[in-house]
């Protein structure tokens, strides 16, 4: 006979309050911009005390980071699921590690990053390109996603070279953050319902990032080789 583990009521309540706080902050930021609301307003909308909000986050910027992570969560679930599918049957040794990294890169093609990026852009008040605060908030959220992806890859390919893993993750997520800025510059008034033309432009930019992650992409050919310029 199997038994269901008891649910930790305190943990469940904390998670419920955190969701309520993030939902409240997301609603307020969407309606009033990232600087148009206070912690007190978040607490009132969430139905918790001001102190409870600060038990979960240190301040408004950390709260916005958490909301951006929430927006990225759906894409993250899809990304992790796609990586899981693509790494189900890896070769052993170094080949398996390389295959896992390739799977991670290719998985980014099939997740809906454009919607997440457009939604975050609106949440942060459609900031100007180069806005340091917005860049810090969105980059921190992407770094947290990268941490989840790192853990999954290590689990799926335990022989993965740790230097290769860190370099590929750094290149991939720095590249995504960079092209997100370029893409939003091309399409500054995007709604979360991203039109087909903007998605095509995103795919073209992502292709350029992934091209640079392929083995040998930066390797100079020796003079006189058939492929040397």
Automatic annotation (TrEMBL):
Cross-referenced InterPro entries: Homeodomain-like_sf (IPR009057), HTH-type_TetR-like_transc_reg (IPR050109), HTH_TetR (IPR001647)
Matches recorded under SUPFAM superfamilies: Homeodomain-like (SSF46689)
PROSITE patterns, per the entry: HTH_TETR_2 (PS50977)
Gene source species: Nocardioides pini
Keywords: DNA-binding, Transcription, Transcription regulation
Annotated region of DNA binding: 38-57
Protein name: TetR/AcrR family transcriptional regulator
Gene3D superfamilies: Tetracycline Repressor, domain 2
Domain HTH tetR-type: residue ranges: 15-75
Domain of life: Bacteria
């Amino acid at each position: 006979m199997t038994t269901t583990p008891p649910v930790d009521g305190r943990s469940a309540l904390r998670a419920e309050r955190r969701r309520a706080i993030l939902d409240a902050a997301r609603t307020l930021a969407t309606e009033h911009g990232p600087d148009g609301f206070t912690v007190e307003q978040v607490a009132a909308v969430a139905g918790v005390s001001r102190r409870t909000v600060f038990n979960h986050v240190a301040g408004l910027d950390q709260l916005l980071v958490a909301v951006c992570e929430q927006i990225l969560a759906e894409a993250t679930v899809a990304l992790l699921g796609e990586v899981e599918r693509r790494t189900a049957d890896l070769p052993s040794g170094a080949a398996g590690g390389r295959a896992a990294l390739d799977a991670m890169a290719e998985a980014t093609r099939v997740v809906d990053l454009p919607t997440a990026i457009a939604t975050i852009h609106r949440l942060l008040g459609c900031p100007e390109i180069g806005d340091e605060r917005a860049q810090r908030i969105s980059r921190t959220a992407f770094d947290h996603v990268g941490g989840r992806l790192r853990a999954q890859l290590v689990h799926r390919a335990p022989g993965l070279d740790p230097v290769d893993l860190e370099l590929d993750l750094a290149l991939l997520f720095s590249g995504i953050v960079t092209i997100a800025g370029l893409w939003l510059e091309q399409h500054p008034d995007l709604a979360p319902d991203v039109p087909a033309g903007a998605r095509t432009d995103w795919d073209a930019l992502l292709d350029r990032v992934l091209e640079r992650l392929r083995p040998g992409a930066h390797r100079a050919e020796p003079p006189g080789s058939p492929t040397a310029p």
